TrEMBL record:
Name listed for the protein in its UniProt record: Sugar ABC transporter permease
Family: Belongs to the binding-protein-dependent transport system permease family.
GO cellular component, one term: plasma membrane
GO biological process: transmembrane transport
Keyword Thylakoid among record annotations: no
Spans through the membrane: 24-45, 57-76, 117-138, 150-169, 229-251, 272-297, 330-352
Ranges of residues in domain ABC transmembrane type-1: 113-353
Amino acid sequence: MDLMGFGLLGFAGAQPNLLRVLTAVVAIALGSVGTFAIFYGLNLLVERFPRPWKDRLLPWVYMGPAVLMLTAYLVLPTLQTLYISFFDNRSEKFVGLKNYVFALTNPDMIIAFRNNLLWLVLVSGLSVGLGLIIAVLVDRVKYEAAAKSLIFLPMAISFVGASVIWRFIYAFKPAGSDQIGLLNAVRQTVGLDPLGWLIERDGLLEPLWSGLGVENLTPLPTLLPLNTLALIAIMIWLQTGFCMVLLSAAVKGIPKDVIEAARIDGANEFQIFRRIIIPMIMPTITVVTTTVVVAVLKVFDIVYVMTGGNLDTDVIASRMIKEMFNFRNFGRGSAIATVLLIAVIPVMVTNIRRFTQQEANR
């Protein structure tokens, strides 16, 4: 037995990754079998009750475990976070609303709010807008399936994976060095200076035309820092395919007779798009937009991998992680998490109301 134990320990030490995979497989298998056994057993138990009681209890057989999991892993942690947000960094001394004052007035938090607003407006607007335009256009091409597959492909990549890919695209070396980043290699080829896409945080457009011999022109001020825009572009690249697929399904649901009748009446393609297609798929546009908005409000991975939130690229979620785990200030981190939750709630309520209205109109 001792030899067997030492052998297992040696195997575990030599093959840690294999051991993790085996553990995951066993956990998935046991979890699936256990879940089936729970539902099957509860169903047999409910079948023994009289008919009226069975009809009342059966929905809870399927909803009960989900409600318990939701309560244990969402509701209770949320209440605990709210409680901690009223205490100091060690969760010992009650400080009232001090942490919320910090979350709403600290200069670094103001930058995070500004960046989140930029993410919110640009990602949701451009992702849904591009997705809608592409959905309408690919509906008319011969190789529709292939085109949709290529545009949807980024959705198969995780945020972290996409960030690693775009790090190589944005890679920067000083002028005079061979550029390994795709964008700077292109700029160097056409005679422009390489640009630190993830470094430039000034609200100026001047870096974009650096090397053209027009440096004496007065730079145009803007509130859109280049490094934050570079991060936003990644999210747009990821979300456009998602928006396109859902909106394409909605466009295909429009009766062909309506489109043909509009053409017969003399409407051009732009008028059909603006006056028929958009109004008829507006419920889908609303759902897609709110889904993207929620994803943007919670964005963290891209910022963390690309810049770590440095150079004024922080968003609310990345700032929360810094306060919670880097600075070990649990009160401030919990307050920021609560602010983020409050920001998401109106969007979710709007989405639920829209869904309820759609179901009522069917």
